[in-house]
Amino acid sequence: MNNHSSPVNILVIDDEQDIREGCERILSRMECEVVTASDGTKGLDILETQDINIVLSDIKMPGISGLEVLSTISEKYKSVMVIMITGFSTVETAIEAMKKGAYDFISKPFSPDQLRIVVKRAIEKLRLTREAQALKLEQQKNLADLETEQSRTRAIIENLPNGVLVTNMLEQIVLMNPVAKKYLGLTTDKGIGTKIQECIEDKEFCDFIKAVSGCKTDGKNGSASNKSHELVLSDERYIQALGKPVMGEDGDCLGAIINLSDITAMKVFDRLKSEFVSKVSHELRSPLSVIHEQLAMVMKGDIPEESDDHQYILGRAKDKTKNLISLIGDLLDLSKIESGSTGNEPEKIQLHNFIEKIVEFLNVEAQKKDQILLFNLPEKTIPEVEADPIALESVFGNLIANAIKYTPEKGKIEVTLDTKNHYVRVQVKDNGYGIEERHLSRIFDKFYRIKDDNTRFINGTGLGLAIAKTLINELDGDILVESKAGKGSLFTVLLPADIN
Ligand code: ATP
Ligand code: MG
Prior knowledge:
single chain; 500 residues; alpha/beta; Rossmann fold; Beta-Lactamase; Helix Hairpins; five-stranded parallel sheet; five-stranded antiparallel sheet; elongated; binds adenosine-5'-triphosphate; binds magnesium ion
């Protein structure tokens, strides 16, 4: 009989002991908890301290009357149901009691059955009320859960790194996150609810969304195919839009979901890759075709084997192959460095002796051009730097070799080692051809070589400075250039060291 495992608590208030005891006996058998009070005041005291569901109260009692008890209960304990016990003579009073909020009444004298029926009705009502309350609580909880779920989903969509745009079958925007708004150049309040063609200027993009929404399921797997479209923003960024139709149960398209992602980096990488491939192909092709022609001439047999020309042509071909081998060596080094390894462990290096040896070695080349190559020795001891010696040899070797190459005969090259702030500084200065301002920012690019009247016939691949810059940057150092056409150049390498 009890609902939701809560017992039904009944309070019986009557001045007649027989009625109190009779009620207690009958109602206890109905699995109710029964308490009794002999007058209204005691009854109200019990209500104050105990959780009572139903009150059976006599109307006529000494002290406060049943009607007074009823009005206090209706005021203070709204959920408590009151059944009035009335005498024959007080039917009118019973009616009045009903008007004042009593749930039911029972007339004295009553049989146990009559009591059971009246109380059963009240208990049933109590059960229904409890059920309704539980249902309401459940609903509130579900709603709260739903709201949390919805706001969580909303937060995720709002914070996605990609743009998300959802349209309905009327081609109206129903959802759009901030990234999508940014990519499509829309102001915050514009968009949701409007037709795509009314807020998106790019007609091709609108057509793309329409095409996605227009998809019918294909017979084989029941899903419509993905479509993609590329947007180019005014700041040269590339956005890829991938679209997927939203399909209803009957296979009709309800709208479209568009995912927008920034693919600029991929595009730049693609462009660099093809530029690199075409540069490398070019660098390989011209010397190879010269070698091919030279060998063809020799093979034709027009040039006598023992003649100087014969030797000369073969010698030229050999030189070219040597350059090609060195180019491929540089490329391999570069790819190794760029993938993050020079292959050697860093060591502590004392640059004083280290550079002196490189200068001595390259002095042979300088002497061939009657140049003066000086190493300005540091006044104080220079702190060691930690680096891969082979990498440093390639950097300084290239800088000094460049100075020799790009300085005419009888020129002067000075290499200086000292410190500046927290860095060890190596400077290579020449009074050679110099570099025009417009080339300065590009000489560290791969394959970039200046071809003018002075340098046209100087061999090189244009990789030396690119390799040097990558290596020095990896050591948290820096490489800088100052130069003036016709006056000479100054290359500065800064390497971090323990300098207080
Ligand atoms: P390699 O890969 O064999 O070193 P390279 O010397 O041509 O070939 P880099 O060392 O990268 O290539 O130099 C790039 C370009 O910068 C050179 O081709 C040259 O035009 C210019 N350059 C470099 N150093 C000097 C310098 N000291 N004086 C004038 N121009 C220079
Ligand atoms: Mg070089």
